[in-house]
Every structure is written in structure tokens, then in C-alpha cells.
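Posting this for the archive.
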Amino acid sequence: MQARTRLRDIQIVSTAKIFRAFGKSSYGGRLIEGAGRTRAGATTLGWMLGYRRSFRTLGEAEKAVKPYGKGGHESTANVDLHISFSARLSDYAAFYYLRDRVHRIQKVFDLGGNVGNLYYCYRDYLPLRDDVSWTVFDLPDTISRGQALASVRNVKNLQFTDDFSQIDGADLFIASGSLHYFDKSLPEILERVERLPKYILINRTPLTEGPDFAIVQDGGHIRVACMLYNRSKLIADLKRLGYQVAGEWQSPDFRLPVLDRPSSSVGAFTGLWLELA
């Protein structure tokens, strides 16, 4: 990282810490959002926070964070971190809905499933069918690592793809910790599918009750752009496709601050289990 970019990054990180602490109080939050409603205030906040401000689109957020991203989703550190994950609290909610249906699930489409970490985790907790076909959708470098890992572990029923058409005919569609990294909402992805999945599992997803917008998530090891989709609209659009919400839960161990709009900060990520009527 060049010296000027490094100094700018240090300034943004320091400013973000101050805004996060100040925005936790109701007075501080109102003051920040009040400033943002004026043209001069919005310009000042935007400069101070840099890539940590909110954006209208995912593309704008991706462009802003690119010089500071630390490799993004395909970085070695990110892939290694996902490999090390075991079941987390929100996974047990997913197990609850899957346990009585898993024998009917033969084809799985795992959106943004990294190197197949969910498959390796879930097979330790659920009696997956011997003939289950588990397809992970991800980025090219991550796919290569996933295929290599599956080969080393002699796993035959784990495949990888970068083709959305593989959703067609899936019994289960999973978006666990991934939905917010796509510039198309889930209904937009599914409306092009001829044979919709019977079940949808959404887990660890930040949702808002306001308009959709984008921010940059700073995970320490990487910084990536993500979307905050409107919860009510997401559910309504999925209902329009024929789905009913059978379960919903919260993941308070996952939070997402919105520094220039503190009232839109996500205090807990959301999980949803939906079934095709």
C-alpha cells in the first residue's frame, strides 16, 4: 500500500472508531444524521469516513474500498478463516428446520459457500443422504481451492460452480453469510429459475427496515462491500414467488454498524427458513 493510501486508511480507521462510539448514544446518532441531511454536512461526513460511509449501490462501495480491501473475498486469509469455522449459534436454528426435511433433500445449491465449509460442518450434525449433490457457487480462485480441498479429502458429492443456472431443480437453496455480498437480491436471482427450490435457508444476513443501501464491512482481515436489503420487501418478494416464511431467528453475535446513519445499524443478523407453497 502506497504511503498516501496508508495514511488515508489510518485516518479513516481512526475516524470510524470515533463515529462508532459517538453514534451509540441517541444524541450522537441524531447529531450525525442531522449533519448528513445537509449538503455541506453530507460532503464532510463522506470525506471523513471515506469507504466507511454508506453508498447507494454495491458497485459504489466496491469502488471506494478497492484500494483498502486487503484482497477481498478471495484473499488467502479469508478462505483459511472459513475453513476453520465450526457450527455457530445460528447454525443450530438451521439444523432445527433441516432435521425433519433432510431426507427429502438431494440437491443443494450453496450461494457464496466458499470452499464448502457449510457442507463439511453440516454433515457432522445432519444425516445427509448418501446421494446428496451439494453445489457451491463462488469466485474462481475460491472454487479452485475448494476443488483441491475436496480432492484431498476424497469428497465426491461436493461440486463448485460460477453458474446461477445450477439453482434450477435444487431442493434446498442456502445463502448463509453471503446474500448481502451480491448486487442482486434473492428474489431477483430466483425469478429467472424455471424450477424453484423447495426450501430456502437464509442465515447470518444483515437486513434493514429502511431503503436498500450499501456499506463496507470491515472484518479486520478483509474489507468488503455489502448490501443491506429491506427485510419486509425481501419477504414480500419471496412470497410473490410462492414462498412462505416458516421460521425466523436472530444472530446477535453478528452486528454491522452504519457510521453515518446510526439508526440503520444492524444489531443482529437475521435467519429465515422459507418453503415453497
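The mean pLDDT is 93. The first strand starts at residue 107 and ends at 111.
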